[in-house]
């Protein structure tokens, strides 16, 4: 299965063009690293790829078709700040089961303790909360995962733990993985291909 941005252009309102006639494609078998200096449009591109925004021109295609307009999106985006990606007024069990059902085995494999489900988001550490967000993104219909600077705010031990869990899930479920990072060493370690937007 292929995820593709075909000749897309995008700008916020009447602002400058962030992406102009831009092409990107990756296969489900790939783990692609996307690197570029701050402000180059990495987060904008992944928002478009996951269907959170639409390009002004061009198309986002999954296996040659537009992303579904309703229901579960097979391209799931995980953000840098997990606390901004969950509703602070919902207990974690409600957040987790909002989009799709998540099986117990998956929770266990992500190191999520059942008791945590009864807690509020601010009662978990950043690393624990990020694991929730990853588990939430791993619905049965997910085909591509996009990780947008997901470990930047975490200490190195928690970073290693997060990537171990995530890469195991990607391998087991044969998901495509797109990793947005400023960390070239991380990209080289986990990715099968690296795209440098600055060099494009
Ligand atoms: N909601 C928005 N409204 C207006 N401009 C925006 C918005 N979000 C981002 N931008 C602008 O779009 C450009 C690209 O931003 P984007 O966040 O995609 O870059 P990035 O490469 O992910 O940067 P970083 O590495 O710092 O996260 C920046 O100039 C930014 O100021």
TrEMBL record:
**Keyword annotations of the record:** ATP-binding, Hydrolase, Nucleotide-binding, Transport
Specify whether Flavoprotein is a keyword of the entry.
Answer: no
Enzyme Commission number(s) of this protein: 3.6.3.24
State any single GO MF term: ATP binding
Task: Check the record and name the SMART domains matching this protein.
Answer: AAA (SM00382)
> Which residue ranges does the record assign to the ABC transporter domain?
3-199
Q: What class of enzyme is it?
A: hydrolase
Q: What's the superkingdom here?
A: Bacteria
Task: Give any single GO term for biological process.
Answer: transmembrane transport
Spell out the PANTHER family in the cross-references: D,D-DIPEPTIDE TRANSPORT ATP-BINDING PROTEIN DDPF-RELATED, TRANSPORT ATP-BINDING PROTEIN
Record's family?
Belongs to the ABC transporter superfamily.
Which protein is depicted? Nickel-transporting ATPase
